[in-house]
Design brief:
Blueprint lengths: L1 H16 L9 H19 L4 H5 L8 E12 L2 E12 L3 E5 L6 H8 L7 E6 L5 E3 H4 L9 H6 L4 E4 L2 E4 H6 L17 H14 L4 E5 L7 H13 L3 E5 L3 H7 L2 E6 L2 E6 L2 H7 L33 H28 L9 H32 L1
Parallel strand pairs: 3-9, 3-10, 5-8, 8-9
Antiparallel strand pairs: 1-2, 1-4, 6-7, 10-11
Length: 376
Amino acid sequence: NALFDKRLAEEEVWIRQGIKARRTRNEGRVRALKQMRQERQQRREQPGKATLAIQESTRSGTLVCKAAGLSFGYADELVIDTFSTTILRGDKVGFVGPNGCGKTTLLRLLLEELEPAAGSVRLGTKLDIRYFDQLRDQLDFEQNVVEQINGGNDFVTIDGNQRHVISYLQDFLFTAERTRLPVKFLSGGERNRLLLAKLFARPANVLVLDEPTNDLDLETLELLEQRLVDFQGTVLVVSHDREFLDNVVTSVIAFEPEGVREYVGGYSDWLRQRGGVGVPKKPPGSPSKKLTTVSDVPGTKTQKLSYKDKRELEKLPARIESLEAEVAGLHELMGDASFYRRSAEEIASTQKSLQELEARVATAYSRWQKLEQSVS
């Protein structure tokens, strides 16, 4: 299955590259990443098992974003030329390139915040998107730290569990005494840690971060890396920080002289695949491609699905979600020790049902990929 192969390739690169700590090796982070790799490997081998490990109250659909043939530009300058990608739940994607090349523009296109000149974008289901940058403008300098997190309530819900807000803030290196201080008395590093606490205290399954490492001290930067590694949803991040990208992302979308390209792995993997050469800065006055739309290209034909196939494609993500939920339910049932006290016939029947459901999930994924390729 092409979708599973994409994930497998990402994890193989991750295994090869390992995790390079900034100053001191964080063994907890290494263990977390190893566990994440194991969970994702299990998901590929037995669809549905992972739902037990990564179940979230705000879990998105399998597909987060599908872009096909995206083009975009300003005036007569083409910034993005026929770029396509598929982003799945759990992907952590870094956007790299020189300043002003269009990284944030592409991010906005993928989130349907901008209209492309050509091509299409389809977002998945149940997306709950949070933007790190927007939180910077939401700090009330007169309120204390606790009031900023949950309106002053004593408890905050994290991953479906109630935690005391002070205990939660201690995860972000705040002492109990500092949590009662007004924001205006916090250091710059403390304010940034408060932003992270606000970000992760809100239900979300897609995090969008534009240059998040700017103005972060070392402690806060390492904390952000750890939180993003632990985060079970999807991460889209624009950054120039090489080590940050190496430690967090599973793939890189790079703006190169030849166009926008996608690579598996982190920043270092991207450089290695380019022969150790990064992206040069665009020289002043360099020629740009002319912005054209699909209708401008002679002989361009868009392959269209039949009405029946189009309806099937629209319904497949929800169907896959439903099948995965059934598979997860059977895994949970069979994971209970009392299940094996049932009759041999009932156990065999349940195991057969599980195998049939997993086969239906694999078939649905294959059909989905085939239909998607027909329109991309």
